[in-house]
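From the pipeline queue, job 12 of 40. The input is one protein chain; the requested action is below.

Action: predict structure.
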Amino acid sequence: MSQFYKPNRKPDYNYGGSRWTLSRSKIELFMDCARCFYMDNKLGVARPPGYPFNLNSAVDALLKKELHTHRAQGTQHPLAVSYGLDAIPLAHAQMDEWRDALRNGVKCVHKETGLTVRGGVDDIWINKKGELIVIDYKATSKDGRIESLDEEWHRSYKRQLEIYQWLLRQNGFKVSDTGYWFYANATKDRAAFDGRLDFELTLVPYTGSTDWVDGTLVTLKKCLDSDALPQAGEDCDYCRYRQAVGAVLQKYEKGKTKPLF
C-alpha cells in the first residue's frame, strides 16, 4: 500500500466531522474543481497527492532559519534592503503556530458560514506603519530573472496570498494589500555543478484583493450542504480520467469479463 496515497479518510476528518476544517488548499481545490472538492471533503475520497519536492522543502527550511535570525535581532533581511522595502520579520508569540499548516496555521471562524478556515503562512513582515506583510517563499529553476507572475496558472499563487491576508484581517490585524513572493531561482550558468546550487533571490510584489473570499465561502458551504454531486471542473484531468475509466469498467462489467489481475 502506498504511504503517500490513502484515498479513504476517517469520517471525523470529512465535512461534518469533529476534526474537519477548511484549509487554504481546500479552498483552492474548490476553485479548481467543485466535484473533486465535494468528493474529497463530503464523500471522503481524496485526489492522489502530488509528490513532495524535497529541494523546495530544503529551501523553505533554510529560508525560515535565515529569517528567524533577523526576527530575533529585529533587523531587515538584505533582500528587503536592496528592494527598499522598509520592513522586518514580525516577532510574534504565535509565529510558529501560524507557520504550521498541518496543525493550526492562521485560522478563524467565518461568521456567515460557521466554517473554520485556516492556512499556514511562510512568513510575515511588518512595516513602519504597523501593517503586516504576507511573504510566501517560492523555489524554482528557470531562465531569466523572476520579477513578475503573469501567467494564468499563477492565479492560484495570488489567491494563496489573498487568503493569508484575509485570515490575518479576520484576526484583527492591519494588513498591507501588497504581499511578496520571496523567490529563490536556481541558476544554470555555472561551469559545473561542483556539488552546489547558486540561487538568485528576488522579491516579487503583488497587490491583492480579498473581496472574493466571503462570497466564495458562502458558495462553498452551499456545495457541501447539497446532496447533489457538483459539475466537474472544465479543465479537471482527474474527472476526465474517472469518467474514461468508469466507461471502460462498465463495459467489462456488462460483458462479465474477468479481471486480468
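Job complete. Residues 54-73 form the longest helix (20 residues).
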